[in-house]
Amino acid sequence: MQNRLLSGDMPRSTVLALILGAILLCLAFAPFLFPGVRSVDTAARICIFIVLVASYDLMLGYGGIVSFAHTMFFGIGAYGVALASTHMGRGFDALLVGSASGALVAAALALVIGLFSLRVPAIFFAMITLAVASAVAVPVSQLSNLTGGEDGLTFQTPRALGPAFKFGDELFGVRLNGKLLAYYFVFVGALVLFLLMLRVVNSPFGRVLQAIRENDFRAEAIGYRVVFYRVAATCLSAAIAALAGSLYAVWLRYVGPDTTLSMELMIDILLMVVIGGMGTMYGAVIGATLFVVAQNYLQNLMGAASDAVAAVPVLPELLNADRWLLWLGVLFILSVYFFPTGIVGRLRGARA
Amino acid sequence: MSDPILKLEGVFTDIAQYHILQGVDLDVPRGAVTMLLGRNGVGKTTTLRTIIGHWRARKGRILLDGEDITTTPTPAIARLGVGFVPEDMGIFADLTVEENMILAAVSGPLDPNRLERVFAAFPPLKTFWRAEAGNLSGGQKQMLSIARVMAEERRLYLIDELTKGLAPAIISTMARALRDLKARGASILLVEQNFAVAKALGDHAHVMDDGRVIWSGAMAELAGDADLQERLMGLSVEA
Amino acid sequence: MSAAPQHAPKMAQLSLSDRLGPWMPVLLIPILIVLGFLAIPSTSSWLTLTVSGLAMGMMIFIMASGLTLVFGLMDVINFGHGAFVSVGAFVGISILLMLGHMTEAPSLVLNLLAVLAAVLVAMLATGAMGWAFERVIVKPVYGHHLKQILVTVGGLIVVEQLIIVFWGPEEIYLMRPEALQGAITFAGAALEKYRLVAVGVGLVVFAAMRFVLRRTKIGLIVRAGVENGEMVQALGYRLRLVFVGVFIAGSALAGLGGVMWGLYQEVITAHMGNQAMILIFIVVIIGGLGSVEGCFIGALLVGLMQNYVAFLEPKVALISNIGLMVAILMWRPMGMIPVVKAK
Hints:
The structure holds 3 protein chains of 3 kinds.
Chain A: H1 2-5, H2 14-28, H3 30-33, H4 37-62, H5 70-88, H6 92-118, H7 124-142, H8 144-147, E1 153-154, E2 166-171, E3 174-177, H9 178-201, H10 204-214, H11 216-222, H12 226-252, E4 254-255, H13 257-260, H14 263-276, H15 282-308, H16 315-319, H17 324-338, H18 342-351
Chain B: E1 6-15, E2 18-28, E3 33-37, H1 44-52, E4 57-64, E5 67-68, H2 74-79, E6 82-85, H3 97-104, H4 112-121, H5 123-127, H6 138-150, E7 156-160, H7 168-183, E8 187-191, H8 195-201, E9 204-209, E10 212-218, H9 219-223, H10 226-233
Parallel strand pairs in B: 3-8, 3-9, 6-7, 7-8
Antiparallel strand pairs in B: 1-2, 1-4, 4-5, 9-10
Helix pairs in contact in B: 3-6, 6-7
Chain C: H1 16-20, H2 24-39, H3 43-74, H4 81-98, H5 100-104, H6 108-138, H7 145-167, E1 172-173, E2 183-186, E3 189-192, H8 193-215, H9 217-234, H10 239-265, E4 267-268, H11 272-287, H12 292-312, H13 317-331
Antiparallel strand pairs in C: 1-4, 2-3
Helix pairs in contact in C: 2-12, 3-8, 3-9, 3-10, 3-11, 3-12, 4-6, 4-7, 4-10, 4-11, 6-10, 8-9, 9-10, 11-12, 11-13, 12-13
């Protein structure tokens, strides 16, 4: 059963299995284990980022393709739900239409970029996606009447997912309301998408992708159409990123350029996937969890450390809570050099 | 063959996961033309590239005048006086003929006397002195690649495929240029597919097969023994 | 082998399109300027926009030239190049602010001296930073594009954050020195002095770069190295040293571009290099990675396009440059002046 769910891709390390199990348990019972608006919000973000980062890993870690347009796909999914909910009214039909069309548009756009990039040297891909993603972000923040511009869009999700909806009293001291349902909507959605991706990378399709990453000339020589696999991976990855964006929109009931399209978010994804471990899927789980928790709680710690060294010049500035990205950047460079397989690779290696 | 200018001792070279050279032993005597022969894909080009340092030997030693150059960086090997003509000629197509020649003279400005000799051997280079090398014909490019190693005094010349794909007229121009070099006492290690050229130019020969040298001796001996050629290289001299 | 017939030297005949081919990219610039003239109703606006487009193009060229050569020489793609732009701007502008008494004085000489000092210090700082960046960040990942992209992005994050540590998170506003403020009127169009100066500086840098690449031995080595680095080494030149030199020079130029960009915008932020990178990438891609001439032409096209379109329809300025990139890559997939690679 377990083997089938994970598509035969077991953690292959006791420590890793324990960590993953703990993360799964914590996320599954987050509203009961960590009651409080902020911690549940953190848990929901972790769920969404796991999917987003895993979909990026599908391209980067399995396909060896570096794209800087991933937040664009994420944003398309988020805006899809927001626009559908705004124009169709609150309801699950709007969510369905919004997320489905978001995923389709993202996949179609990925197809266009992918086909176009076939004409040009592979090294251009990363640069082209960077330019395209930045260019797309501009009209989104300027077409105010459609997208809400810089302010973004606030909209209503189905009643059943709102805090006003109550379906019982309390369970273990947790109020049974729509917000709780919304969390489980996000959790189940993320879990299904993640297991789906696990299935994809362990299917024959995923194996060919990895063969291409290792040696594309040889894969081509064996008779695989490298181009087809690369483009297909890009499209699939884009569609799943869009669905993650839809989940994000459902959870926040708001979309804006900063939360879904910014280059900072892109960099965050890159950090999460590399630190967690490229080409492992589970790396996305660990990377996203670590990153979101750090984002929310490490800053307090750094703030305290900064106060402690207030007397020393420069050091307080370096330890300033807002500078945590600096240390993450250093960690990122070090992990590319020394642990190119990230935390997951490290854990698996330690066992072997 | 005492005191060779170049000596390879048990050289092993890998390219990616493939073991290309599997213990090459060979000597290049001073002041003579040594042929490196063998069928396609037996490791002749890899041998030359290992000597100049483009590939690194995993095992074994390479001695230039008794000095171990196995791990010496390529530019330093070149500056020890090893001139290299690669299989693809290595012409800088974006640069003019003149600029190619200026670069070939590593240690200073071009020597006018040498340049005269180059022009005498290869008149087209004078005609197209200021033309982009990329616009030269195949034969003219090969002339330029040989002219580049003639731009300075070298201790050893490594030439990969002197006559590949060239018209007969140009082949004889090349052969003449090489004979001229040899007459001035040059030591040359030459990979050549054209057996007639090998016979005409070579003093010594090494035959390779499967990443090893399987026969070494005088070129005349190999040239005179059709059975031996058949056995070593699977070819009979073109009638 | 019998006596050979005399070999008759002969150049391959070029067809008309082959002859015209190399000039097409250069022709695109006047074509775009004419198109701008047709699209923009007022001649004086068109003139103003053309000058600012050229100025912007020159600055992008100065920032991008190092990146394209670094790629051409060692196949290294540096996503952190924008960091040099930001650092150059911050160092240079800091010097200018320190020399406030010189920049505010109504003396051309004092103004220029202050700017010169700022530029020199900024270039020294970014050059030194380039040296360190090459050693620490780039050198360990030679020959591995994926790691290069990741590590240089990491380097960019770290540098950006360090800028915030030293200069604070707020954007810094500045005034151009007296002599570089204001505009001159020409044929009814207001042409900002600073933009004219930027065009001049860009031309000088381009001319100097061409001189070095065409007329000096080190330039020959660089050009030959872009085409076939292995052969350059087999001739006896230490390509790595040349590469480090080019990396440092390219970083210093990016620093110069940063100062100029900062003076142009009259505001600097830690992210400015990041934003500049988008245009820089478009420029090096359409120019042909590794080609300085292509980079120059590409930068002018992008600068002009950006300014014309921003005037006609501000929202699509950046999109129009993406369109330009797509169109050029459909025409020449390797960029306008593709670099011949031996391998």
